[in-house]
Amino acid sequence: MQIGAVFPQLEVGPDVAAVRAYAIAVEEMGYRHLAVYDHVVGADPAVHKGWAGPYDLHSTFQEPFVMFGYVAAITSLELVTSIVILPQRQTVLVAKQAAQVDLMSDGRFRLGVGVGWNAVEYEALGQDFTTRGRREEEQIGLLRRLWTEESVTFDGEFDTITGAGIAPLPVQRPIPIWLGGSSDAVYRRIGRLADGWFPQVPPGPRLDSALATIAASATDAGRDPAAISMEGRAAWGPGGLDTLLDHAGRWRDVGATHLSVNTMGAGFTQLDDHIDALAQAAAALI
Question: Which domains does the chain possess?
Fold first, then answer.
């Protein structure tokens, strides 16, 4: 498995020096990639009564594409969005931003996308929450065309392009697209379209069922299910390193090609705590 780390956005906050220190430490410890989560805006619980989402307007999220432009200049890590919420964003702009990160990182970029769960965020970005699945499916094919064709003409349900293209094109043509999500519709989409996926369920019966759905969908689409990569996530939980290593072993046993070590939500209050936990994990895993 290729081992990476999840950037602990909620604990690191807006400190640019902390972003730099964390990214450099991750690379020096031998991790191969850095995964970053995405939210553009958060809901105000004072306005949205009974708000039950995991994040709100106080949750700090670095903008992934901008942050990766910075990290690409100071490390040689693979940069991974895990995930950006694609249907709430303009397709052509995502293609341009992703191509730029791919160029800045010399082809070390993996675009993870998903449909999200926050209708408040969709409203703020002027997009329709109810059609997000159909839009993501259309966007994936269009992104690949924009990364590989000089001039694109496209007339779809959600996007129209007449003889236009982005320049410069990315190093990777096309950039790998990985999907997140945890519904049968998403699993079928992964089988048809994705280069890889980020499971939202742990190893066990639910993962087995998801893998079967993905494999069947891939076969129906004329694709090899074995060519679809999978990235598990090992969390630093109450059991510390022992818990994390147990998670990592379970992902290895089910055939994960990648693994991200996640220290976010572990109760750490200082950057050094995250780095110390990652160092312990690296010594055992890498």
Answer: 2-285 (3.20.20.30)
